[in-house]
Amino acid sequence: MTIKKAEKGFYIDARFIGLSFVLTSISNAGIALMRDFMQGGTFEVNLNTVVLQDENGNTIAPTGVQAIAAKLNAICNNSSVDLSFLTTSPEFEIVASLGQVLGVTPISKFGENPDVDTGSIPEDIWSYGGLYNWSTTAAIDTFSSSEIADTQELVFVGQTADYVEVTQTGTLNGRNKVVLGTPLFRLYRVYNNNGVDLTGDIYVYEDTPIVNGVPTDGTKVRAYIQTNPMIPDNQSEMMIYTVPAGKTLVYKEGYIAMSRGNAGAADFVLRARLKDKVFRTKRRISLNSQGTGTWRAVYSVARVIPEKTDITFAVVNVTANNIGVAGGLEGYLFDNTIWNL
Predict the structure, then answer these.
(1) What range defines the domain where residue 302 resides?
(2) Together in a domain, 166 and 201
(3) Residue 297 lies in a domain
(4) What CA–CA distances, in Å, run from 65 to 15, 89, 119, 131, 204?
(5) Number of compact structural domains in the chain
(6) Segment 140-174, tens digit of pLDDT
(7) Can you give the pTM of this predicted structure?
(8) pLDDT digits (tens, 9 = 90+) for 87-127
């Protein structure tokens, strides 16, 4: 039987071949065949010999996506099997966003800086404000709240000194310092993982003195959750990101907007820094709240950004005080090993 790329749905079909047909081992040649298939190639597969197994080698009954793999197997023996599922599979973006494409992870980053002034520029787009201070060692290790009542569990997403992404949890102890289990080199998301809203502002920082839970040295702050009593955010808002080790970011879409505050204009830059290099401007945008107050770009040719690259959106000029700005990006992380990058 020959399986060919279809006009729609070939991404998910390739995934079934890669994930549902579990063999005792898979060779580099096998991975290459799968990759070639997803790029429009064809290859022969004898589905009569396929046995569905778990990771321990035990034969399992087909369920979920495996049921479709079993259906493919049945095609070899029954020409009357309904083939409509092969042409109605979701497109790549949908399946990848569900985490169902081998070696591909969706990424969505967003942030806001609620108050930029003419005398404070340049500033990065993150809720704490000012230019972001990138850590030079894995020294991001402490967090606290400005309110005694906060005892919620938080989730921290960042990277160790070797740029490996880690997700960890920690529980607030009011205005007292709490130490992270794993100190971080990069940090780009913190959120409330509890059923109770935060009541104070949350600070994550390189260890420094605090007063009532608030760091006295603002240059040490690496993530911040600003409490809004009417509609609590319960998570950081920071357009700060680093591509993890072993991954390549395919940057599909970006946006910047005037989000609140006074009327005026603002100039922005998208900046990226390769490991051990300097930040370079990748895009320049100008907006005016009285005209074009939003910029959105969906790239027909996606931007490819290598591992260990730092990314930020910055505001470099505003024409009035108290201007709020927001920005974000969306794309996919591709595993360098699986995709031979």
Answers:
(1) 105-112+240-335
(2) yes
(3) yes
(4) 9, 11, 57, 46, 41
(5) 3
(6) 999 999 999 999 999 999 999 999 999 999 999 99
(7) 0.75
(8) 334 577 887 888 877 888 999 999 999 999 999 999 999 99
